[in-house]
């Protein structure tokens, strides 16, 4: 799994020596390394017939209000395919929901649990709890790009994308210290997610793996 493994590494390096973390660090498994190269949005080919089910527009998604010191750029334009565009939209909200949970310092915050289930929810909860334990949050600017989406007829999908963490930092809540780190190859992370449309018509993440320093995401 893991949202922002490079940021998490910065957190562990600056934590007090007496504290230990069961870190949810970046997953450098073959699944992350052997996936097809991400070159940009999947807009050219038509997907199989879209799964039928509830209208995703009818679902009452949680409101996500983030502080002004967090900003996002999502460079993933609409594909023109209804299901793929719904996955992009729900993916954006899922990312922000995890960040809201870190800001709220509550590893069981409802907004992120709306978008994550099963293994992905358990791993994300552990990841968030480490921030809570160290009274740390996040700040800065984030960019997400090069999405690839594939939808299956059985109501499941795969979604891969890149993240630029170069201007993203850990912030300690007690001291207000912002731990700034230099931009390196590991500032660029690729994520691979498996999703399923739930009974509300929302695309929820069931599994996620990541690789920091991915050559697929380098500028």
Structural account:
Helix content is 27%, strand content 28%. A hairpin with a 4-residue loop joins strand 2 and strand 3. Strands 1, 2, 3, 4, 5 and 6 form a six-stranded mixed sheet that branches. The chain has five helices and six strands. It has 219 residues and is an alpha+beta fold. It has helices at residues 5-14, 30-33, 82-104, 110-115, 118-133, and strands at residues 70-75, 136-151, 156-172, 178-179, 188-197, 203-212.
Order of helices and strands: HHEHHHEEEEE
Main sheet specs? 6 strands, mixed
The gyration radius over C-alpha positions equals 17 Å
Give the helix proportion (percent range).
25-40%
Number of strands: 6
Strand content: 25-35%
Derived from helix and strand composition plus strand pairing, the structural class reads: alpha+beta
**Mean pLDDT over the full residue set:** 80
How far the N terminus sits from the C terminus, by CA atoms, comes to: 23 Å
- Cα shape: globular
Low-confidence parts = 12-52
Number of helices: 5
Topology of this structure?
Blueprint lengths: L4 H10 L15 H4 L36 E6 L6 H23 L5 H6 L2 H16 L2 E16 L4 E17 L5 E2 L8 E10 L5 E10 L7
Parallel strand pairs: 1-2
Antiparallel strand pairs: 2-3, 3-4, 3-5, 5-6
In short:
This protein is of the alpha+beta class and 219 residues long. The chain has five helices and six strands.
């Amino acid at each position: 799994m893991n949202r922002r493994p490079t940021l998490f590494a910065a957190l562990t390096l600056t934590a007090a020596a007496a504290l230990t973390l069961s870190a949810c660090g970046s997953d450098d498994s073959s699944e992350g390394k052997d996936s097809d190269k991400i070159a940009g949005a999947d807009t050219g080919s038509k997907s199989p017939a879209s799964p039928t089910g509830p209208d995703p527009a009818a679902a009452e998604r949680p409101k996500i209000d983030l502080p002004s010191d967090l900003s996002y750029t999502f460079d993933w334009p609409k594909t023109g395919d209804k299901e793929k565009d719904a996955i992009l939209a729900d993916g954006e909200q899922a990312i922000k929901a995890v960040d809201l949970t870190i800001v709220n310092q509550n590893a069981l915050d409802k907004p992120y649990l709306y978008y994550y289930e099963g293994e992905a929810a358990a791993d994300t909860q552990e990841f968030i709890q480490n921030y809570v334990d160290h009274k740390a949050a996040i700040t800065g600017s984030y960019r997400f790009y090069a999405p690839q989406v594939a939808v299956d007829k059985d109501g499941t999908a795969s979604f891969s994308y890149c993240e630029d963490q170069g201007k993203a930092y850990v912030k300690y809540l007690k001291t207000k210290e912002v731990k700034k780190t230099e931009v390196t190859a590991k500032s660029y992370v690729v994520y691979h997610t498996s999703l399923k449309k739930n009974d509300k018509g929302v695309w929820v993440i069931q599994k996620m793996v990541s690789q920091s320093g991915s050559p697929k995401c380098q500028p």
